[in-house]
Every structure is written in C-alpha cells, then in structure tokens.
Amino acid sequence: MVTEEEIERIRKSANIIDIISSYIPLTQKGKNYFGVCPFHEDHSPSMSVSEEKQIYKCFSCGAAGNVFTFVSEYENVKFLEAVKIVADKCGIPFSGVVSKEKPKKFTQEYEIMNLALKFYQNNLNSKEGLLAKEYLKKRALDESVIKEFDLGLALGGDVSLNKLLTSKKYSLDVLVRLGLVNQNNGYINDVFQRRVMFPIHDLEGNVVGFTGRIYEDTDQAKYINSKESDIFKKGQILFNYHRARSEIKRKKEVILVEGNMDAIRMYASGIKNVVALMGTSLTKDQVHILKSLRAKIILMFDNDSAGETATYQNGTILEEARLEFQVVRLSGPKDPDEYIVKKGIQALEENIRSPISFFDFKLKYFKKDKDLTKVDDLASYIKEIIGDLKNIPDDLTRELTLKKLSEEYQISLDLLKSELEKTDIKKVVEAPPKKLEKKRISKYDKACQNIIYFMMNDGKFVERFLKELGYFSEKKYRNLANEIIYYYEANKKIELSSFISFVSTKDYIVDDAMEIIRSSKVEDLQMDAFLEFVSVAKTEMTKREIQELKEKMARSMDANEELELAKKILDLKKGCVGNG
Questions:
Q1: What is the enclosing helix (H) or strand (E) of 152?
Q2: CA distance 143 to 126
Q3: How many CB atoms lie within 10 A of CB 56?
Q4: For residue 282, pLDDT beyond 70
Q5: Residue 432 above 50 pLDDT?
C-alpha cells in the first residue's frame, strides 16, 4: 500500500509546470502558464496551469486537477499508476507496486487461454515443430520474434488441445464458447490444427484469442481466427496495442496497419508504435482507444484496391471523429510486411516520414475507375471533390483546391465556388446543427457546489461552514463535506492540489469532487461570496425541511403530534429568509 503521506511527498516534490510541459508546450503569461488543452479539440491555448496552486484548469472544456490527475487523464491510467509515473519522472523513490488488475469476471476463461498459449508454444519447440519453424524462418521470423510475440503451433490429431483441457476438468461448453474446440454430432476436435499460432491480446495484455496460419501446402483457408467470445470482441481491441502503447506515448504517433503480420514485422524491425485492425473497419470502441492515445495517426494499409478502399473508409471514420491523421500509400510490394522484406526497413521509414493529407489522398481516390477525358466522369469527379470540401473548415484549403481544379480542367472558378455554396446550403438545410442542451442546475445545487469548492481551497471556509451550516441534506454533498472536514482536522490546513490527491483514492466521492472542481467558475475566493452561498443553501434546506414536516403533519392521526409539528414549522419559518 502507498500511504497518503508518500503521495503528498511526491506531489510536493513534483512541479506541475515541469510535468505538464513534458507532455504539451506551455507559455508563461503573468503568474500562470497556458497551453493547448489535450483533453478536447483545442486550437488556442485554453488550459491554465498555476505554479503557485499546483493545479491546472481548461477554461473551455473544464478539465481540471493536480499533477497526478493530469498524468492519469493524459496517459489513460489509474491514479496510483499516475503517481508512479510522476515519481519516476522526478527521480523520487516510490514504494508501491502498481500491477495490472487481473480480470475477475472471466477468471477461468483467461486461465484456459493461457494454458492454450503454453501448449502451442511447447508444440513449436518440439520435434513436430521443426517444419513450422522452417516456415517461419523462410518468412524471416527468427527466434527473437517467436519469443517476443509468443508464437506457437497447433498440431491436432494425437497432440490435441481439447484432450489436455478436458483432462483438467474444464467444461467442454466453455472450450467451445472460447472457439478452441468444435463439437459436431458427438465428435470433438480442435478448431486449430496444423497451423502456426499468433496469440491475440486485449488492451491489458491478456490472451483472448488466436490467429492460425497454414504452413504447409494445402487447400485450407490461409488464416482462421478465434470466434468472438465473452473475452474476445475484435471491435474493442487493436492488435499489438499492449506492446506499442508506451512507444506511441513517447513518439506521440501511432501507425495503423491492416494485418497482424504487418504489425509484427514492423515492431520486430524497430518501428514499435504500430497497431493493427482486427479484420474490420474501425469501430466506435477502437476510435475511442485511438483518441485516448492523443497521438497523430498514420494510416498505412495494403497497396491494392482493397487497401485503397479501406484507407478511404477508415479515413472517413477518423475524419468524422475529428482525429488528427495522415496517409501513407506504399508502392510496389503489397503490404508493410512484404515491403520490409523486399526493400528494407529504411525504405519504409522514409515513406512514414513523408505522409500525405487525407484530402490529398481523396483527390487521387475519387479518380478511381474514371476516365476524366469523358464529360460525365469528369463532372462526377468534380462533384465528389466539391462535396467533400464541405468537411474542410479551412477556407484557404478550399480556395486553393477550387483554383487548382479551375486551372487543371479549364472550369470557371466562379462556377466552382457557386457549386460549393450550394453544397454548403444543402448541408445546412438537410442537417441543421443540433443545439447542445446545457444541463440546468438549480440555485441550491450551485450554492452547495460552490461552498464545497471554497472549502477545498482554504481552511477558513471549513471553519465558517461548521459554524454557519454544519451539514448538507443531500448525501453526495454531505459525504464530500465530511471528507473535507476530516482532511482539514487531520492536517490543520487544506489546499486544492493536496485535497485532489487525497480524494482520488476514494471511489465513492472522487467523481463528484472532480465534477465540482471542473464546473466551478469562481476565481476570487472571498468570504462575502462564500456566506452568500451559505445563505442560499440554508434557506433552501429550511424550505425543504418545512415541506417534509407539512407532509408528515398531513399524514398524522395524532393531535399532539400535529401540534408538535406545527410548532417546529413555525420555528423554522422564523429563520427562513425569503419565505412568505
């Protein structure tokens, strides 16, 4: 366990300016530093970082916190892992052990997949695995790659995975659900037979499935994959993510390829910031994973018609998600795997260093299967480009594109502009922008949240709260107030940055606390303002108590109880400001 004292010692030793500036550029303006917020689509510096208070806040999206919460959000890790990262950056000893949580719900399923992995690895290292190793050698996959990627071999027949697993009393139904075993008309056999096995890991590095590839001459399908199961949803993972993540964070760039072998070859050749799709177009979950990396994306799909189409489809998905990305189109060999084998890693790296924009890719893609010497095809091409320009917010790019089309195809620039205007008008008519409804917050809730925010920042507000109000009727506010009071009484002082660390380990209140910090607009913490919020909260709480007593009185069948309740109501009304 890591103590609160150790967390606070690390926080005090780490200057928030140094840590945040290692992730994003900061510029000093007056007492504070400003940078482009990494937590939303930000084009101008809207994040303020206070060296004095050791906190940050974005004035646009509301992201806020201390050095640990910034690292936690940016790196997409849990609080204690963020503490370790900060400690490592500062060269400060950290006594805790941050380990990946083992999935609890499907413990048996993960055990089975790990046993399958070891079984396949043992097969590859046996005499029966010599032929498969010869195949891997021909594919330029040496022992280091085999070990790095846990490659194995499924044999089937007498060397059967299902016999091993059923002997260990695992349910046949579970083995079938995991896609390791087939059961047809009472006949049981391994799904994977006579195939080199490539394990598939989830985001945390747990084995969840396999890809099996033939290594002998046969008319069977070249590749077969595990079917989806409780632990394997191919739309929720990216191949090689668990290995590539740290390098992606370091380079702030992720290369997205089509196939497992592309990722393996690139990673083994030294390009370690690479992940692969799982045989489908990008899903919402995968887009969310890429967005959480906060890295530039490079699409590098196969050099064939299907790869070109996949680039367009997936690029459109990324464009709609407003992610920063570029495109690399290889020439010659079909895919990155083959490209490295035939042309070498340096040639591939040169391509990666010279990507094109998605719009430039589309200018070539829209020419596909068109004869631009024909009027109909040329008109169709021009309309596709103009239709796509509506997604480009940059006026200069629009203007230059139209001018280029005008000059290249001898078309009036005014006509092209007119067509673009029609497209923009049509877009507005067909899909008017939805107005975002702001969540309304009552005057009372606003007062309670501001009281808590004041208390998090300075002990004098904690003392005045105890004197003037003392409690909140709502559980979430009451829990927070109690923790603030406890922290203040234990430490004899309180400041926002240190309280954030304290509350971050308390799951039942951390979300409420951070929401209050994010939504607060108060900059000048004055006692007069605090007492005004206390007055609003006190008045509303009294009104609510009066209403509860009236309802209780209406239900009462006892004259003495009614008289007692009426007296309480009268006493409350005397002190209820603004009650008629």
A1: strand 152-154
A2: 14
A3: 27
A4: yes
A5: no
Mean per-residue pLDDT, 65-76: 91
- Whether residue 358 lies inside any domain: the answer is no
The pLDDT score that the predictor gives to residue 338 is 94
Environment class of residue 293 by beta-carbon count within 10 Å: exposed (0-12), middle (13-18) or buried (19+)? buried
Lowest mean pLDDT among 68-77, 347-356, 391-400, 538-547: 391-400
Q: Which residue do the tokens 């400041």 mark?
A: 495
Residue with tokens 């396999």: 210
505 and 425 within one domain: no
In terms of domains, do 216 and 165 share one? yes
Are 382 and 345 part of one and the same domain?
no
Decide which of 178, 199, 232 is a domain's last residue.
Answer: 232
Q: Domain for residue 495, yes or no?
A: yes
In sign, the C-alpha dihedral spanning 198, 199, 203, 205 is negative
Q: Which two tokens stand for residue 342?
A: 């035939």
Quick check: 452 and 481 in contact, CB under 8 A?
Answer: yes
Report yes or no on 580 lying in a domain.
no
What is the span of the domain harbouring residue 68? 4-90
Nearest to 533 by CA among 457, 446, 418: 446
Between strands 325-327 and 152-154, the pairing is: unpaired
Q: Total domain count for the chain?
A: 5
Which residues contact residue 176 at a Cβ distance below 8 angstroms, ignoring those fewer than 6 apart? 182, 183
Burial class (CB in 10 A: 0-12, 13-18, 19+), 29: exposed
Q: In the structure, how many helices (H) and strands (E) does the chain have?
A: 26, 15
Residue 193 maps to a domain = yes
pTM: 0.69
Residue 56: what pLDDT?
A: 96
Evaluated on CA atoms 115, 120, 126, 128, the torsion sign reads positive
Which is it for the CA torsion 211, 212, 218, 220, positive or negative? Answer: negative
Do 285 and 219 lie in one domain? The reply is: no
Using the Cα atoms of residue 402, residue 317, residue 276 and residue 176 in order, give the sign of their dihedral: negative
